[in-house]
């Protein structure tokens, strides 16, 4: 018997390739079962031949789809080209998706987000089309690739830039837009005139801020989403929905928008001159932030804003569009559509027309009434409404008439609930931004049948695994909740539930499942804010510190530096706090976020206090983390000896604490500092140990940090090929976790190595992207590195004046500070050599001497030796 043995699956950096047959059902009909089976067999033969010839290992085959792993990205692209070309003469066309990552290889196969990302990319293509992720493109270069833009893949948090490999014109990618618009659960009914009006206004050059106004329940959000979807193809950089319903702090509006776009820094800088539409939904409770929108528009010339609000924003340039009720025919059609979805035999009659009139043709009121048709006929519904509406609309005369009608309808719907349903409806108002069923059960004592009943009655919405209320309905539920005796105990349960969630998530945020937990915490961000407010309001500072310190890594990764600091500062405000591990960890978090927020003067005091508290309470982990940030601050002050000593102390404490995340981070960071002192052996040892620890833990951030130091050391050793492999993997990880800083760093390294190899086209592309990201992120060090690499490209291509401009701009970027001396020395060295090559020996000497002084001052022997050598050539 012949045994069939699958080749060993590649590990480390792996390139995944997924294929799927386009139109298989149509092919069966056209070719017949036998003909399709024959064509499918030939398709499998061609694909397996292409994969095997290029080093691919077949991971799985399901039906007519292949999942293949390649040890190299070029091999995967060669295989894709061979597969598509081999099928060209036959009836079958396959869509192909390729993505490179660092998946976890378990006994049962590959595990991790990279597998899902590759499959998602394949699914959005067309037959004969090969789609490639940005991480794969970074490894093979963009020659032969066409940039299709950035897209948001389903269930993937970060935006993905997708390229097409090879020639050919194809329709837009399927199921994807450069947008994050929610998929409507119901069809868009009526509103043709209003939709035309809104689209017409947004098409005008003089309309850059359009506010759709009207009371709750008029359908502002649904109209705005439909208009935004219609306009998705009109904005090169997409349309983006910024939901504000759960938000109460106007200061968080732009930060929330930045999160929607995947921007980790200043929103205006990130948008710059990109063409996009932002939809700010439910602006009325944060209307004080209107001035921020006006400033954003002034800074971003190609940006348009669409806003829904119960009131005008009253800022310069605003155009208002009051959303009217549905016209009567549309109102009847809307009611029937909702009613027939529940009770198909409902038909139009005079009762329905009168119901619509009584409810002022308000969509939300009609939906709540239609939800009752399983229990009441339209005639019975009308009779109930005639009894209740006159009484209910008689109060609250300060509200507009339509708003009183809507409130009356919600109250009528509430009064029809059973006592058990009423209690749960009120308790669910404790959740801002919705909740999972688990949270509803634990906090609000929810019963699944009662939850489902509220969904059936349109008082509660259900999307994926979350339950939520429209804000208009939640406002009413919150009134009932605040009147009940349940408020205090349920609020306390809510706070403790989310404390437990955050503390459970904290260790997962540094492991292989980081992406999923980041998404989970982002979904619960409003509930976490509510819990922090509750603890602080109750004077439970210790619990507030526990919660805030558990969220530090979430705030750090997601770029919520300012908000995280604000919560930690409030928790640390007690002049005589109880010394505890929570206090030590909170001081670490406050110091870290202060350093990242350019408040480096305040950061050392917080961190030194954190070290002292950690030592007294015996928390080695918190002590190690504080020492790591102190080491980083010393590095940026050009105190490299102190920085190394602090990192070595941190490594020792983290090792004894068993804090693998801190240990990997400290080793990786030390590995990036040692090359700047010419200690390449120490850099290699620290980097390799950090890399091994991070890989074993599935810690992508730790892997990224170690790869950076190893790549920097390889660059200084002149090992350009090694740099390409290390920096290519680091770039793939940085893109995957949405880290713009290290995306720019790794592109700088890749550009520098490509120049050394003479691959100037790839070098220019990498350097230009590094600079583009650096300017958006606002990091002076990033700008210096990117401009130095771009200058080397210009010089190598014979354009010395352009090279000199880049280097002089790099020096200007370093002037405000925040750029370690070693990096400035490298720029001075390149500039001195460039000027020497142009014949101006005196000017060249001044730059080379400045480079030597900077390098010597910080103990950078590698840079100092090169400056001495260049000066010797001038003699």
Low-confidence stretches: 1-6, 391-400
Report the strand count.
Answer: 17
The CA-CA distance between the termini, in Å, is 78 Å
Strand order of the largest sheet: 2-3-1-4-7-9-8
- Rg from C-alpha positions? 30 Å
How many DSSP H or I helices?
Answer: 39
Tell me, rounded to a whole number, the average pLDDT.
87
Largest sheet: 7 strands, mixed
Query: How much helicity do the residues have?
Result: 55-70%
Binned strand content: 5-15%
Tell me, what's the shape? globular
SSE class = alpha/beta
Brief write-up:
The chain is of the alpha/beta class and 875 residues long. It is 61% helix and 10% strand.
Explain this structure.
It is a single chain. The chain has 875 residues and is of the alpha/beta class. The protein contains 39 helices and 17 strands. The strands form four sheets. A seven-stranded mixed beta sheet has the order 2-3-1-4-7-9-8. Helix 19 (487-508) runs parallel beside helix 22, helix 25 runs antiparallel to helix 26 and helix 27 (620-636) packs parallel to helix 29 (660-673). The longest helix has 30 residues, at 24-53. It is globular, with a radius of gyration of 30 Å. The model is unreliable at 1-6 and 391-400 (pLDDT under 50).
